[in-house]
């Protein structure tokens, strides 16, 4: 039975990833799925940290160190389509770079390369802590430099409000994954009575 549960969880998390690589220009649901997976990776870290004893006994693959590895791998894999999207949608990405920054196109290409490099680093475990922290910082800076000024300017555009909210959630998910690499007590066990 546990192997069936593992297969179901694995299938739910990774079933849509191959289509993202085969059809990178397909924006919906591909990009929506990628964004959702960053948030899911953060939630998986929280579950691995705060799972009760009952969860640890029945879902040991999703708790503790195994659960953290699974969440980190998911996060790393999701960063690859993030990077690819910067190349596929290069004009749209360059248009989002703040006006006061030079070389919009170069910034877009550099960010795409940075996401792919971070993904490879996280998946292989080579400088994974640094890569996770820098990718979370990059997502947070995008939120701070692009979407927050638009909202503060008083936009009434629902799309921009939606993207700001999504970007804040992505920042939180990425931050939680990056924090999972911090040394020290990595989990809090809740004992059931």
Provide tags for this entry:
193 residues; mainly alpha
Number of helices: 9
Strand composition percent: under 5%
Largest β sheet strand count, sense and barrel closure: none
Helix percentage: over 70%
Runs with pLDDT <50, length 5+?
1-22
The residue-averaged pLDDT reads 77
| Structural category | mainly alpha
Number of self-contained structural domains: 1
Instruction: State the separation between the terminal residues, measured CA to CA.
Output: 25 Å
Total number of β-strand segments? 0
The sequence of SSEs as H and E is HHHHHHHHH
Which term fits the overall shape?
globular
The Rg value, from CA coordinates, equals 18 Å
Topology, element by element:
Layout (H helix, E strand, L loop, with lengths): L1 H13 L2 H6 L7 H21 L2 H6 L5 H25 L1 H7 L7 H21 L3 H25 L5 H22 L14
Helix pairs in contact: 3-5, 3-9, 5-7, 6-7, 7-8, 8-9
Q: Could you describe the 3D structure shown?
A:
There is one protein chain. With 193 residues, this protein is an all-alpha fold. The chain has one domain. Helix content is 76%, strand content 0%. It has 9 helices and no strands. Helix 6 crosses helix 7, helix 7 packs antiparallel against helix 8 and helix 8 runs antiparallel to helix 9.
What is this entry, summarized?
The chain is an all-alpha fold.
């Amino acid at each position: 039975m546990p192997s069936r549960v593992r297969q179901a969880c694995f299938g739910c998390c990774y079933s849509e990833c191959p289509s993202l690589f085969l059809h990178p220009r397909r924006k919906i649901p591909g990009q929506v799925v990628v964004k959702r997976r960053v948030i899911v990776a953060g939630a998986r870290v929280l579950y691995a940290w705060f799972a009760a004893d009952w969860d640890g006994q029945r879902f040991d693959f999703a708790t503790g160190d195994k659960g953290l590895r699974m969440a980190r791998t998911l996060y790393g894999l999701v960063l690859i389509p993030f990077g690819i999207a910067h190349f596929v949608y290069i004009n749209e990405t360059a248009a989002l770079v703040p006006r006061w920054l030079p070389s919009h196109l170069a910034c877009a290409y550099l960010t795409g390369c940075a996401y792919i490099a971070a993904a490879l680093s996280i998946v292989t475990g080579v400088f994974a802590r640094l890569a996770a922290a820098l990718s979370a910082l990059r997502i947070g800076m995008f939120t701070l430099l692009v979407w927050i000024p638009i909202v503060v300017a008083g936009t009434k555009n629902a799309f921009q409000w939606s993207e700001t909210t999504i970007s804040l959630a992505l920042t939180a998910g990425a931050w939680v994954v990056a924090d999972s690499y911090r040394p020290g007590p990595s989990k809090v066990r809740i004992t059931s009575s």
